[in-house]
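Kindly inspect what follows.
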Amino acid sequence: MRVLVIGSGGREHALCWALAGSPLLTKLFCAPGNPGIATVAECVAIGALEIETLVAFAQDNAIDLVVPGAEAPLVAGLADAMDAAGIACCGPTRAAAQLEGSKIFTKEIADAAGIPTALWERFDEAEAAREFIRRRGAPIVVKADGLAAGKGVVVAQTEQEAIAAVDAMMDQRVFGESGASVVIEECLVGPEVSLFALCDGEAAVLIGSAQDHKRVGDGDTGPNTGGMGAYSPVPGFPPALEQACMEQIIQPALREMAHRGMPFRGILFAGLMVTDSGVKLIEFNVRFGDPECQILVLRMKSDLLAALQAACDGELKNFDLRLHDTAAVGVVLAARGYPDNPEKGSVIRGLDRAAAQPSVSVFHAGTQAGSDGAILASGGRVLTVCAVAPDVATARARAYAGVDAVAWPEGFCRRDIAARAI
């Protein structure tokens, strides 16, 4: 098979790494890719949102399967365009991608399907939203309806903080039209878990679950980020609970989407909270998480390429996707100033030394190659250093040994990734 992965982050590096090991693979491309991806795939200089150009490239290069990494191309209609060109794409249509593209849409699906989720209200006018907050009090959660690069959710501990979020989203339009409408919902309490399923429109198979660390600082302090690290498996979220979530959350969502004439194909990522009254849905995403993808592919026993092809062929009812009985931990190295104003251009050394540590893998995200071949920081989240081991404690120790082998004074990481699991 000839495969095109779309994206340039750590998630896409992990996907390329996993696909490169498939015996089904003939040729692997990635658009636009990064220096790490270039070691396992041929990178092509096409942006993830240049849909017409991506379709033309797929046609010209006889691509058999397109694997999108991030949500924005899917919300923009990438899968529709590939389908129209007769090219298989393991991702949802623009209509089905509303599960991530619109918080309001997801809440409506959850209510219609009987999926447990937080109580919520929709607001299209700022003053009505502010009045609701004053009436309900805090803590309370304010969410921009549309895509906001992972920054459109504010868990407000005070009324003033919630009202400030409404002002920023609806009046100041800091997220553009994504904040024209907002969802305001009750603040659930409990540990968060990311659950991933591969879907073909009707059937779904469990990929696995992981726990992400969203706050930038140790002890879950500071602003939210795209994710500072993750680990899998998650203590307190055993296989029986994973299967219960498949039956009570994933399958009902698939049935409701099919009922609405927009069957969901691809990776369905359920952000869950384990509350005292049971597991509840926080949000749906329509792709792998980052950095959860990095650690899940390291645990994957099954052929990922065969699984993605089965999803496109509607054959998941006959497919069993398995993980190794191991643990994996991933630690994100970010550029100083992240998440607000990450510093770019600094030189990263010691990557070979880090990858030589026992059971360590280094996935590139915000990197670029310098004119002299040096690896430079070019984004906020720059690397994910991952390790596998028989248990989480050993995997964690190995991952941090990999981190400590990287020579990058301008970078930083959290030092408590997976500590809660030990």
